Structures are given as C-alpha cells and as structure tokens.
C-alpha cells in the first residue's frame, strides 16, 4: 500500500501536479543556465530567437505532450514553435532525460502561477 501511494505521489510530481517550491525554482533556474536554455529562452517574455517559458507553459498547459517536450529539450530540432529552430543536441550542452524532465516540469509549472 505504501509503495502504491509513493508511486502515485512520484507520478503526480513528475507530471507537474505539485507546485514548484522556491528552492526547486532556484535549482531549475540554475540548471536552465547550465544547459544554455537561457541563451535563447527567457523566463517571462518571448525573445526574437525563442518563446519564453511562460508562453511554452501556456501553449502546452493541460496537454499530454510532456514526453514530446522532454524529447525536444534533449534533441533540439525545428518545427516546435513557428519558424524558431532549437539548436541540435551537438550544438549545445548535453541534457539527460532526467534533467529534461525536470526542466519541462518546471516550465509547465509556470502556467499554474
């Protein structure tokens, strides 16, 4: 029973059901900086190069696109947002699947605010 509850809590956390704490926000901001996300994306506003995290969160709010977004963070490419092209993975810092999931959950949590 405890395992089932823990599993449900972890699943909910991974799906962004819990709000991001201030500490986690700082950690995710730092991770986004380390992985060079902020060289194209801004937190609040769209830039000439890429959509802001709030715009991404609004577009994908409530959707079942988390896996797709994790893949986009890991592999880059194009056709994600109009004519904006995300650098290919060999042109930027490597992002693990776990890190990509954390970043996606953090970005999607911005819509809940």
From TrEMBL:
Binding site for heme c: 37, 41, 86
Matches recorded under SUPFAM superfamilies: Cytochrome c (SSF46626)
Database matches in InterPro entries: Cyt_c-like_dom (IPR009056), Cyt_c-like_dom_sf (IPR036909), Cyt_c_ID (IPR002324)
Keywords: Electron transport, Heme, Iron, Metal-binding, Signal, Transport
PTM comment: Binds 1 heme c group covalently per subunit.
Molecular function terms, GO-annotated: electron transfer activity; heme binding; iron ion binding
Cytochrome c domain sequence ranges: 22-111
Signal peptide (from-to): 1-22
UniProt xrefs under Pfam families: Cytochrom_C
Record carries keyword Secreted: no
Positions of region (Disordered): 80-101
Protein name: Cytochrome c-551
